UniProtKB/TrEMBL annotation:
Lineage: Eukaryota, Metazoa, Chordata, Craniata, Vertebrata
Domain AIP/AIPL N-terminal FKBP-type PPIase positions: 2-89
Keyword flag Repeat: yes
Pfam family membership, one: PPIase_AIP
Places the protein is found: Cytoplasm
Record key words, sorted: Cytoplasm, Repeat, TPR repeat
Listed Basic and acidic residues bias regions: 263-282, 306-317, 326-336
Protein name: Myb X isoform X1
Organism the protein comes from: Solea senegalensis (Senegalese sole)
UniProt cross-references to InterPro entries, sorted A to Z: AIP/AIPL1/TTC9 (IPR039663), PPIase_AIP (IPR056277)
Amino acid sequence: MFKMEVWESLLTSMRTGEVAEFWCDATHTGLYPIVSKGMRLIAQGKDPLEGQRHMCGMGNLFHYHSTGFPELDEIMRTPQPLIFIMELLQVGDPMSYPRESWMMEKDEKLQTVPVLHMRGNALVKQRQFSEAASKYKEAVLLLKTVQSREMPGDIDYINLGRMIIPLELNYCQCMLELEEYYEVIEHTTELLEKHKDCVKGYYKRAKAHAAVWNEKEARRDFNMVARLDVTLASLVGRELKALSERMKEKYWEEKETYWNMLEKKESKNETEEEEGQSKEAEGGDIGMQGRSESVTTENTNECEEERGKEGGDEKSMVKPTQGEEAGSKDKASLSKTEGKDWQQMLRLIMFLQKEGNFLIKEKHFQEACGKFTEAIEYVDFLQNKVDEQGDDWDSLEKVRLSLTLNLGQCKLELKEFREVVQIINKLLKRHKGSMCYL
């Protein structure tokens, strides 16, 4: 039963528990690369015949020109003596041990599959999902090995493919229970590529997508389930409702997390600013004390002249300059942007836009207006900091366009038509040549 006959000859010279090293010349090691490739694939949990065409093993090897392992390819090109280290664990009666898949004939493999299926089901009832998954996977591997020896399109090939479906679905169910969601997505996708009408495949993939927050993909698969089997429409409706609730919960959790981070950042910046201002004030007091003595020694005539002009000076000091007025306006407009860098404001714009869109879906139009208005203020601030002819300005203008249209839509829903006209008129002035209308 050995794929390399020389191994059986070597083992007959050993005692139980012995570890021995054997040197074999090239005449006995020619098939080793093919045997080793299959054993390595089995150790990785893969089908040793995966990817092969319908031909003999040597034919497949020459067709692909490689075993997939560089060291084995080297031995194939230049056969050479090899040293094998073996340990004899146990000596038993013939056929008294579990036979591996490569030892079995076709009929033996087909007889083993239902046994593995039943064992897997029993383990599932005991909630031993990991062990059950290994049984299902072993059964699938046996069927794929048999299927690889059939001609694609033949009735036997098709029937074997149908036998694989329930085993694959059971394996995926175990993976769902073990929260291995990406494993489920991978296996169900492979299954659905061959069997596009598999309702349970779409359902399990939808559950996996929903678990990893792939809302679009989950909805698509749930809708496909309802389309393929109308009797499951009520189940799909409940799943979609549950998905919406989970997405809402995730949205509010992310919102709370984000705002907490933002508030910590702002409080830290405010504390740093207050400390800086207090240090500046202390430095100013010291400077004034140093200059007090020099001020008292000034010429008395100059002091009298200053007293004569005192009234006029007071009037001029009360009136602020144009620069001071502009500065006060700037401070008022920049109050929301203090303590935030460029990247932080960009993320905040995207977050406010997403939050506004969510509020529109919930028909909270007044709150959505506030989100879009705040986001537009941040866009205005960033646009004033970049070149109007640059790519950054154009990108921000596209964001502004979307935000303004959404704001206008909210105002329409609130029946604030005058404000809608004003908003859109301003927008059309900036986009005269574009297809921009509401």
